[in-house]
Specification:
alpha/beta, seven-stranded parallel sheet, globular, disordered C terminus, binds adenosine monophosphate, P-loop_NTPase, Helicase_C-like, EC 3.6.4.13, hydrolase, RNA_helicase_DEAD_Q_motif
């Protein structure tokens, strides 16, 4: 292996990177640095994030800058504001000992005027997101005629984000006699056309095999039923007490929902997605960077460019729609030579996607075995013991209290004290997990039988995105599915999407979209039909609540995670639900109605006729 010096890196840069702790070049640097230090050398490099690519292109381009000429000489294009700032920061660090070298990040969402002012004063390196750069070009405030090196970082991401036209417009303004370097984690068709159009005999550098994932990342999947996904997520988080990771969700809505649930259940989590303002996103990212947050629930787009090197885990809460995105997700862990775990919590329907991803990363997933309650308790317990060993004792502050404490505990021997200290935490965990149902992992066969069973016995759980309700009218009241739909629509103003309907003799269940739950209850409860008041309430069998009333540790108390209230315990809140109502509510009234017509046609047709009794 060569040293940075042997690769040709000059003294001022060497000094800076040594201070940053770069002892020897990473493979991509060994390949790219000497080549880029030469003239007219185009490179296309297939490398994941975290492989050291910023220094690979950053060191040679900085070295080639003529600081006496205040003109843009290097242009770096990247997909996101975060990555833009990160690259600019890195370049500033590398050029710490090169006097007067100016790097300017230009990106959307910040004042264009101040970027224009800096450009007027003169800069050497422009790091830009394509949209904002094009805007500056259109305002004639930046001239790319003096550019000698163009770098496209995360080129596949830029294409995914729809920047192809902007990139073409930008590259058309750069003089043809320039070096061009393109970094990409994957090699979609669009990259090949850019290569053909703008690059001259590019040297192809592949770090690892083409499209192959990092070897130091373990890919594990858990196949669970849709309604168990969140429980599985919590088990995984509980099983790795020191987890520091990103939970990827597919939509903004799902991201917010999962983050809210985790926070409510006492986990140290927060959300990152496009509906947050830039300031909110910056705030969350900063909290995550400094590890004030352990689990960041994010969409793919929002997490792009997040520069965190020491993630222990990436969790895919379902696989991404675009299988290529998996490469980017998993690339957030196992960076800079560290190991990482990419966990996918998937549904049996996603099995095909796993095979596709395996083809892309050229690696097999491991099938994970969901940790049992016992495994989790053991893991958490030893983590606690570990913390007891490592805790820093403030000798001075505690000294005055110790005699009293010794006196109080002197009747206990050492073993007893240890058992008691540990039990403070252990009892709580055991309480959560001892009666919890184990999460059923599914394979295709069990999924099929689950589906059959669902058809025969009817599920007690709501479909994803829906809430299940109990209604105190059933078949013996003459209720049919279409009448139930009519009833809901008559009672509730506006349109309500109704999901599964499950009619029983004297009562029924129906589902409505989750967001509509409150409105449906508010509007239906209070109607009377032939003197019988409608009662609609959440069915207990909804989601996880019916299976396991203990989802995870409600963090807080003595737990290291902080956050959370000691009392919140997973999704299930209370055990009332329909059961209690059914026992108390139906027996008399339905029998009287057996022979009656379908009364809702009469009474609910006129909203004014409803009697609100409470
Ligand atoms: P990048 O792929 O450029 O985002 O780099 C990933 C991480 O590796 C960053 O934290 C870099 O600071 C770090 N890094 C890059 N090159 C080296 C090196 N030669 N030695 C140690 N760390 C490095």
């Amino acid at each position: 292996m060569k040293t940075f010096e042997e690769l040709g890196v000059a003294a001022p840069i060497l000094k800076a990177i040594q201070e940053m702790g770069y002892e020897s070049p990473m493979p991509v640097q060994e390949e790219v640095i000497p080549f880029l230090l030469g003239e007219d050398n185009d490179v296309i490099a297939l490398a994941q994030t975290g492989t050291g690519k910023t220094a690979a292109f950053g060191l040679p381009i900085l070295q080639k800058i003529d600081v006496t000429r205040y003109q843009p000489q290097a242009l770096i294009l990247c997909p996101t504001r975060e990555l833009c700032l990160q690259i600019a920061d890195d370049l500033n660090d590398y050029s710490k000992y090169i006097d007067n070298l100016k790097v300017l990040p230009v990106y959307g969402g910040s004042s264009i005027e101040s970027q224009i002012k800096t450009l007027k004063r003169g800069v050497h390196v422009v790091v830009a997101t394509p949209g904002r750069l094009l805007d500056l070009m259109n305002r004639k405030t930046v001239d790319l005629g003096t550019i000698k090196n163009v770098i496209m970082d995360e080129a596949d991401e830029m294409l995914n984000m729809g920047f192809t036209d902007s990139i073409n417009a930008i590259l058309a303004e750069v003089p043809p006699a320039r070096n061009m370097l393109l970094f990409s984690a994957t090699m979609p068709q669009g990259i090949a056309s850019i290569m053909k159009k703008y690059m001259k005999n590019p040297k192809e550098i592949v770090i690892g095999n083409k499209n192959e994932g990092n070897k130091n990342i373990k890919d594990i999947y858990y196949m669970v039923r849709a309604q168990d996904k969140y429980l599985a997520l919590k088990r995984i988080a509980d099983y790795y007490p020191n987890i520091y990771g990103i939970v990827f969700c597919r939509t903004r809505k799902e991201t917010q929902e999962i983050a809210d649930k985790l926070i409510q259940d006492g986990y140290n989590a927060d959300s990152l997605h496009g509906e947050l303002s830039q300031a909110q996103r910056d705030y969350v990212m900063q909290k995550f960077r400094v590890k004030n947050i352990q689990l960041l629930v994010a969409t793919d787009v929002a997490a792009r460019g997040l520069d965190v090197d020491d993630l222990t885990h990436v969790i895919n809460y379902g696989l991404p729609d675009e299988v290529e995105s998996y490469t980017h997700r998993r690339g957030r862990t196992g960076r800079a030579g560290k190991t990482g775990i990419s966990i996918s919590i998937c549904h049996v329907k996603e099995k095909g996607k796993i095979r596709l991803i395996e083809n892309i990363i050229k690696k097999k997933f491991e099938k994970g075995v969901m940790p049992s309650g016992h495994d989790i308790c053991e893991k958490q317990l030893f983590n606690l013991v570990d913390q007891i060993e490592k805790v820093k004792v403030d000798e001075e502050e505690i000294a005055t209290l110790m005699p009293q404490i010794y006196r109080k505990l002197e009747w206990l021997d050492k073993e007893d004290i240890i058992k008691r200290v540990v039990s403070l935490e252990f009892n709580r965990m055991i309480d959560y997990y001892k009666d919890a149902d184990e999460i059923q992992e599914v394979d295709e066969r069990s999924a099929r039988s689950e589906r059959t069973e669902r058809g025969e016995r009817r599920s007690h759980t709501a479909e994803e995105g829906f809430s299940r309700f109990f209604l105190n009218f059933g078949k013996t009241d003459g209720l049919y599915p279409n009448q139930l739909i009519e009833l809901v629509n008559k009672c509730v103003p506006g349109k309500v999407r109704i999901g599964k309907i499950d009619l029983r003799d004297s009562f029924s269940f129906f589902e409505v979209e989750e967001g509509e739950s409150q409105r449906v209850m508010d509007n239906m409860n209070g109607f009377e039909i032939d003197g019988k008041r409608i009662s609609v309430e959440p069915a207990q069998g909804k989601g996880e609540g019916s299976r396991s009333s203990r989802g995870g540790f409600g963090r807080g108390g003595g737990n290291s995670r902080g956050g959370g209230n000691g009392g919140s315990r997973g999704g299930y809140k209370g055990g009332g639900g329909y059961k209690g109502k059914r026992e108390g509510g139906f027996s008399g009234s339905t029998s009287d109605r057996r022979n009656s017509e379908k009364p809702w046609r009469r009474d609910t047709s006129d909203r004014n006729a409803r009697k609100k009794r409470y």
